[in-house]
Structures are given as structure tokens and as C-alpha cells.
Write a structure and sequence with these properties.
Blueprint (H helix, E strand, L loop, with lengths): L2 H56 L2 H10 L8 H25 L5 H26 L3 H23 L6 H17 L16 H31 L2 H34 L4 H38 L4 H10 L3 H16 L3 H26 L1 H25 L4
Helix pairs in contact: 1-3, 1-4, 1-5, 1-7, 1-8, 2-3, 2-4, 3-4, 4-5, 4-6, 5-6, 7-12, 7-13, 8-9, 8-10, 8-11, 9-10, 9-11, 10-13, 11-13, 12-13
Amino acid sequence: MNASRFAKALAGQWTATLYAAAISTLLSFALGRVLGPEAFGAYTYVLTLASLFSIVQDGGFAPVIFRETAHPSDHFPPAASLMSLGLGHLLTVSLGGLVLVWFCPFDHKQALFLAVGYYALYGAGNFLSASLKGQGRFQDEAAWRVKTRTLTAMGIGLVLTLPQPSINALFAACLAGQAAAMLLPSARPAWPRPGLNLDKSLYRSCGAFMLISSATTIYFRSDIVILAQLTDQYQVGQYAAAYRLVDAATMICMPLTHIFFRMLRVNLHSQATFKRSLRLMLVSMSALGLAGTGLGLWLGPWIIKLAFGSQYGQAQLLCMWLVPAFIFILPNGVLTQAIMAIGREGFYAWVTVAVAVANIGLNLALVPLLGAKGSALATIASEALLMAGLILGFRRGKRT
């Protein structure tokens, strides 16, 4: 990718990401203010449970579609077939999840049912995004994300104008907005017919990516679940508000890692170019991580007070404990893309499993002693462990 194409791709991706980040951040502020800490904690809890199940819905197909579209492997089905197979898996698992939620005694059953439905459509949108990015059509992918985020945000915004908005109505709005993005003539892509094919090599790789996503989500979201079990919804709401800064910063840097992945994958057989690109990427993301930490410590409490209000005073302190995670999170994004580009997703899967287990143990040990501050420390320690594991694996691995 030459400099001009890189600049255009990055500009389009950053435009879409900044737009989505701005919308998500504003919605989070509005949700926190309108719902209050307790209801906001319940909303975050349901969202966390549904996001965990969304990993099974995805089934590891999105990263495989991205990778194989960018640079196909000999032992995989053609890229054109991967979308169909992914949709077949997504449909089957989502139907099973809806049945499970309906008949099992979950808290906030209706909200969770709607959230599972929303993530089914969201997963299909992720498959399309992966395909477009694999083809190098980063600007088209950015336009697609802008359309979907706009429609879901409009739905949530309408619900927040109600006298007493409920979390059921919020998830129904997300579902309706995502469905509109996929059905309206102005936005509808050409979806292939869902299909099923139990190809061992495909599901072996998909399984590794699904394990990666599971472990990653667990060590990013287990803190919410553990806080909910060991403290109360008020603490969850305060921590969720502080964590929004980490989510926003990570989201802003995501386009760089996705473009970096395709560059690394395309240059897979040019060792000198691969190493030079990886070195530059790591330096860039490390610098962003240090800058983000400094800005977060300086402006974070003020941003939370301005955005969420005085009722989130504890969150202002918690953000000071969380933002040092940027030092590890952003470089880890590049190391992750490099590991997947060289085909070592199996090793990466086991590293993330080990980090997830460590994260759960740290949360269980620290939350009873420090409350939400313990979860913040567990997040930083987990990211540091992940960085050590990725560096070790990359140095020992051979590009395939």
C-alpha cells in the first residue's frame, strides 16, 4: 500500500471511528445521566453478558474472513465462500441462544433476549466489514460503519426522550437500528445465502480465533461481572463510567491496527519489509500509549465530571487508576495483529486463555480488598502479562 492509499484508507477509517467513538461516548454520557448509576450498571451488566455470547455467534469467522480475503491460504475455502459459511454459523448459534435465554432464569430476561438478537445482526455486519477490509476497501467499510452507527444511535436517542426509558427499550432500539441498516435499500449490501460446511481446517482456525475472542472478552469484561457479584450495581456503574475513557481511546486507535494487519499480511513473504513495518508500528503505538496515559491522567477526571455529572465522583478517581493501561493496550494491538498475520493464532489463543485466567484470579483477589480499584489494577497487570506473552511468542515463532 503506497503512501497515498494508506493516507486515504486511514483518513476514512479514522473518520468513521471518530464518528462512532463520539456517538458512543455521547450516548454513554446520556445513558449515565438519564438512567443513574444503578440502572446504568444493570444496562452494562446485560450488555456484558450479551457481548460474551456474541463471541460464540461470531465463531471466529470475522478474523478469518479478514485474513483470507487479504491473502488466501491454500488449505482454506475460497474467500467468497467464507461469508456464506459464517452467516450459516451465526444464524444457527443465534437461534440457539435465543431459545436458551427464553427458557432459562436469567435476570433482565427480556433485555438479554433483545441483546442477543441485536448481536446476531451486529455479527453479520462484522463479517461484511472484515470482507471489505480484507479487499483493501477501507473507505467503503468506513461508510458502512457510519450508516449502522447512525441508525442505532438514532434509536437509542429516541428512547432516551421517553419519560422513563427502560433497558428493554434501549436494546430494542439497538436491534431496530441495526436491522434498518441491513434492510434499507440505501444501505443494504448483497448478502449471500447462509450455508454450513464442517470443514476441519476452517473450524480449527475459527476455533482458535473464537478462543482468542472469548479469553480477550473475559479479561476485559470479567471485572464487570465480578464487581456485580461481589459489590453492587452502584459500584458497577461508577467503574463502567470510568472505563468509557479506555474504550474510547482504544476505539480511536483501532483503525491503525486493522490497516497494519493487512500491510503485515500482504508483506508476509518479504522478511525485511515485514520487520521494518512491524518496528515502525510498535514505536508509533507505544508513543500513542504514553501520550494517552498522560492526557488521561490530566484530563480524565474533568471529562468524567463534565460528561456524567457530580453523581459519578468515584469514577473520576477510578479513571486515574485505569488510564495507565494505555501503555500496554495500544502496543499489544500491533503485537496481536503480527501474531495473527504470521498464522500463530493457536499460540495466541493459549496466551489469551492464560491471561484471562490470571485476570479472573486478580479480580477475585483484589476486588474484595479494593473494590473497583482492584479491577483497575487487574486490568493493567493483565495487559502487561499479555505483552510479555506476545513478545515471547513472536520471537520464537516462524512466519508461515
